[in-house]
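pls ignore typos typing on phone
flavin-adenine dinucleotide + seq
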Amino acid sequence: MRTAVVVGAGIAGLAAAGALARDGWQVTLLESGERIAASPTALVLWPNGRRALQALDPDGGWSAIASPLPDGGVRRPDGQWLAAPRARPGAGPAPAVVHLEDLYDALVAGLGDRVDIRTGIAVTGVRTGGVQRPSVTDGRSRFEADLLVAADGIDSRVRRALAPEAAAVGSGFAAWQAVIPGYRVPDLPADQAAGGETLGAGYRFVSMPLGGRAAGRGGVYWVATAAGAPRPESPATQLELLRRWFANWHAPVGALLAATRPEDLVPQEVRELRPLPRAYGFRAGPGGVVLLGDAAHAMPHHLGQGACLAFEDAATLRALVAETQPGSALCAAVEEYDRARRPRTTSVVRQSRRMSAVVQARGRLALRARNAALGSLRPRILGHAHDLTADWQPPE
Ligand SMILES: Cc1cc2nc3c(=O)[nH]c(=O)nc-3n(C[C@H](O)[C@H](O)[C@H](O)COP(=O)(O)OP(=O)(O)OC[C@H]3O[C@@H](n4cnc5c(N)ncnc54)[C@H](O)[C@@H]3O)c2cc1C
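k done
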């Protein structure tokens, strides 16, 4: 039987493990955490992510947990439009927002009883080379397989062994996310409840409604970004800082921060891989090793593409190995995965870094230039990003 070891049970690993198992692979899923757990946040599924999920599991019930993302423009902190809302171009599945816990629940359900899940296993070593099957170890046990899928996030141990040139570096931002229950902000007028994006000098605030069609866990999701290092203070103090930084921003920013409790707050440093790995696929024995998700292409979150690309990775891998047997065919599929995924993800990472520079503008001159240009610049960047993502189709 064809065997795969998937390292990491984040969304990339869960998506890949489920898809491989449904295609008849014997899959072992290794996760360093004591349990598979999502943080209490949310994310946007753009058309490419939605198409990839559908290709991975047509019965996944993805629409049932996703709420439509309202068309949002960009404002200044005083509420003036920098770029007015406009209908998103193109056909295909509409962008949607989903609670991360709902997404994890659906992906875990997709594992069925066919995946051997081992939690509390932190991979520390990787072995490739020669005719042996690739393998990983946690220092106590060794797990070998025809195909090794590295989905262990930005600090991937597997990637560090195979592509040490790719370094995880800070993007110059800290981010705070929270989902607050709708009952804590019951009086938001419809236009404020629809959320949107606001850009200040080195600060950004984005909010969106969740569970708009009673889908999944409801509430309001917001993400705030500030240029600079992550804060060392307690969540309560960080929340106070956020309220101060975003004081006097247009409604509903203040109301959302006032309704947030310290225990809702998910702070993190925004990091990315620079440079990207020189390869995403490495032949080994009768198959090889592939890098998926943030292990391959972690990027700043401003275009909301990290998870969507992870689902593209998994859908591409699935298509390439669905019928493939270990040996020269599987080795060739590993190399084809690299050819299919590296140029594509490199383009999206480049767009995401450009957007990062727009958000990061701080000095008075830089801000004036950014604001003047934003009306045309942002739609252009987003338009390009939209083309890159809306046109993506899962491989046959
Ligand atoms: C503020 C913010 C907002 C974002 N918004 C969006 C959005 O709207 N849309 C979007 O598409 N993306 C978004 N993203 C990006 C998205 O969250 C990530 O790209 C995605 O979660 C990466 O998933 P992953 O499975 O590759 O990695 P991870 O989620 O990091 O999962 C890796 C897993 O591997 C495990 N692991 C790590 N090391 C080991 C080891 N040695 N052995 C075994 N297991 C290990 C970890 O415990 C973890 O479970 C956002 C990111 C941020 C920071």
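The radius of gyration is 21 Å. The first strand starts at residue 3 and ends at 7. more later
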